[in-house]
UniProtKB/TrEMBL annotation:
<dbReference type="InterPro" id="IPR011762">
    <property type="entry name" value="COA_CT_N"/>
</dbReference>
<dbReference type="InterPro" id="IPR011763">
    <property type="entry name" value="COA_CT_C"/>
</dbReference>
<keyword id="KW-0808">Transferase</keyword>
<dbReference type="GO" id="GO:0004658">
    <property type="term" value="F:propionyl-CoA carboxylase activity"/>
</dbReference>
<feature type="domain" description="CoA carboxyltransferase N-terminal">
    <location>
        <begin position="1"/>
        <end position="258"/>
    </location>
</feature>
<dbReference type="InterPro" id="IPR029045">
    <property type="entry name" value="ClpP/crotonase-like_dom_sf"/>
</dbReference>
<dbReference type="GO" id="GO:0016740">
    <property type="term" value="F:transferase activity"/>
</dbReference>
<dbReference type="Pfam" id="PF01039">
    <property type="entry name" value="Carboxyl_trans"/>
</dbReference>
<protein>
    <submittedName>
        <fullName>Methylmalonyl-CoA carboxyltransferase</fullName>
    </submittedName>
</protein>
<dbReference type="InterPro" id="IPR051047">
    <property type="entry name" value="AccD/PCCB"/>
</dbReference>
<dbReference type="InterPro" id="IPR034733">
    <property type="entry name" value="AcCoA_carboxyl_beta"/>
</dbReference>
<feature type="domain" description="CoA carboxyltransferase C-terminal">
    <location>
        <begin position="261"/>
        <end position="508"/>
    </location>
</feature>
């Protein structure tokens, strides 16, 4: 006697589940330019590595057809590293709750947490309470709750979480996208919103899905960090992002072999900063020149654009990179860039990444709109994040450091691993403009106002020399810009043994 009949039945049910919503629904998914959930998992993971959990969960319909649960999850390997992946199956009831088994989503979150391995969410549906129509089947209304959200929150402080919005994502689905360390939309096929156009129309706002929650909106407001052009690119970004991070906070970020000489010196850096302090320059070539070649992964380029954030390697060691972009608001700190800085510091602190900060910070952006945006509130949060961080930190002052925002270039209470280029310029206020405010009475009383202004400005320009500051040991080292990479690679080597595995005292909040 054997159990072959039961095994045959198991295989039959597994085959029914693999059909998802049926050929017609699968074709509709493809016609909208989207992969099915099972195709997505195959594209993302190493070939043959997916081990599905709960494949036959679902229910038989009155006509005898099997309707699988519209969430597929399990374990797999990504670049030979174990991960948990879970994805919505839009071909089954469009991701509606009446086809879901919420315990599957909860277990995906819990599994990643308890196995201490990264989690990738492939979000393509609502994943929440569903439509009003479902209340008829329940026979009552209910007080809203998010069962299993404790695991979602816990994972932000435990394992790397990536969320890919791969369709029209609403309600709890949208929350699952936002509650991640790294979130991505695919241009043209992804929309994210609290509620879709039919509900918004009740407010008198007739909009399309793209107008309401398209990538042009959320790629700029910070709901998602990045926007890509295809699902394949989203999967590639996922692999690359995770390559810089440890499997969980209980391990350290791995080093990789680097063929880039740590002693490499780029001659053009000596002229990278214009002598005219009002002239902007491009920061990204400088970042790429000092980190390992090809290693800079910029994150959040469309959001808070006066700050440049990303991950890179120095001598093979992964680091978080923060820089100012003088092409946008002169690099000044806005409400959005402050939020972006806080995000990066939270990520670095959670996953034990040393921070390299290339500084050109003229201060908070000022004006009526800046005040309406609560720039000071969010700027203070960014400043606090810098001061709370315990990970190793190196700052390289390229040019400006002014005011409270400039003070966020490093934690002043820690030992300063800090270098300055000879182009540095710092203080409570820039000399330009500040002279007229400080010497207004003298200038107004002068017979030749312009001559006195020129005289005072010349005197102040002598005082502003970074060599004067170095004489007082208020800046530790002024360096040749061409020495930046060797010194930062040395920092990465020195920082490596200082990293400590385990949960941080505070961690990523989303």
């Amino acid at each position: 006697m054997s159990w072959q009949l039961e095994i045959d039945e198991l295989r039959r049910r597994e085959e029914l589940a693999r059909r998802m919503g049926g050929p017609e629904k699968v074709k509709r998914q493809h016609d909208h330019g989207k992969l099915t959930v099972r195709e997505r998992i195959d594209e993302l993971l190493d070939p043959g590595s997916f081990h599905e959990i709960g494949a036959i969960a679902g229910k038989f319909q009155p006509d005898g057809a099997f309707q699988p649960a519209n969430f597929v999850f399990g374990r797999g390997r990504l670049d030979d590293r174990p991960v948990v992946v879970g994805g919505d199956d839009f071909t089954v009831r469009g991701g509606a709750s009446d086809a879901s088994i919420r315990e599957k989503q909860i277990m995906a979150e819990q599994l990643a947490n308890e196995l201490r391995i990264p989690l990738v969410r492939l979000v393509d549906g609502t994943g929440g309470g569903g439509s009003i129509r479902s209340l008829e089947e329940i026979g009552r209304t209910y007080v809203p709750a998010n069962p299993g959200w404790e695991w979602v929150a816990a994972n932000l402080g435990t394992v790397p979480v990536v969320a890919l919005a791969l369709g029209s994502v609403a309600g709890l689905g949208a929350a699952r996208v936002a509650a991640a360390h790294y979130s991505v939309m695919v241009r043209g096929i992804s929309q994210v919103f609290a509620a879709g156009p039919p509900l918004v129309a009740r407010l008198g706002q007739e909009v399309t899905k793209e107008e309401l929650g398209g990538s042009d909106i959320h790629g700029r407001n910070g709901v998602v960090l990045d926007v890509v052009d295809s699902e394949k690119e989203a999967f590639d970004r996922t692999r690359r992002f995770l390559s810089y991070l440890p499997p969980s906070v209980h391990q350290l970020p791995p080093r990789v072999e680097s063929s880039d000489d740590p002693e490499r010196r780029e001659d053009w850096l000596i002229g990278a900063i214009p002598r005219d302090r009002r002239r902007p320059y491009r920061i990204r070539p400088i970042v790429q020149a000092v980190v390992d070649q090809g290693s800079f992964l910029e994150l959040g380029r469309g959001f808070g654009r006066s700050a440049v954030t990303g991950l890179a390697r120095l001598g093979g060691w992964p680091v978080a990179v923060l820089a100012s972009d003088p092409m946008i608001y002169g690099g000044g700190m806005t409400a959005q860039s402050s939020r972006k800085i806080e995000w990066l510091v939270d990520l670095a602190e959670t996953f034990h990444l040393p921070v390299v900060h290339l500084v050109d910070q003229p201060g908070f952006v000022i004006g009526v709109e800046a005040e309406k945006d609560a720039t000071m509130r969010f700027g203070v949060r960014a400043l606090n994040a810098v001061y709370q961080a315990k990970v190793p930190w190196a700052s390289v002052i390229l040019r400006k450091v002014f005011g409270v925002a400039g003070a966020a270039h490093t934690n002043a209470a820690r030992v300063h691993y800090r270098y300055s280029w000879p182009s540095a310029d710092w203080g409570s206020l820039p000399i330009e403009g500040g002279v007229e405010a400080a010497y207004r009475a003298d200038l107004d009383a002068a017979e030749d106002r312009d001559a006195l202004l020129a005289e005072i400005t010349e005197k102040m320009n002598a005082i502003r020399s970074p060599f004067r500051t170095a004489e007082a040991f208020n800046i530790e080292e002024i360096i040749d810009p061409r020495d930046t990479r060797p010194l930062l690679c040395e920092f990465a080597e020195l920082a490596a043994p200082l990293r400590t595995a385990g949960p941080s005292s505070w961690h990523f909040r989303g």
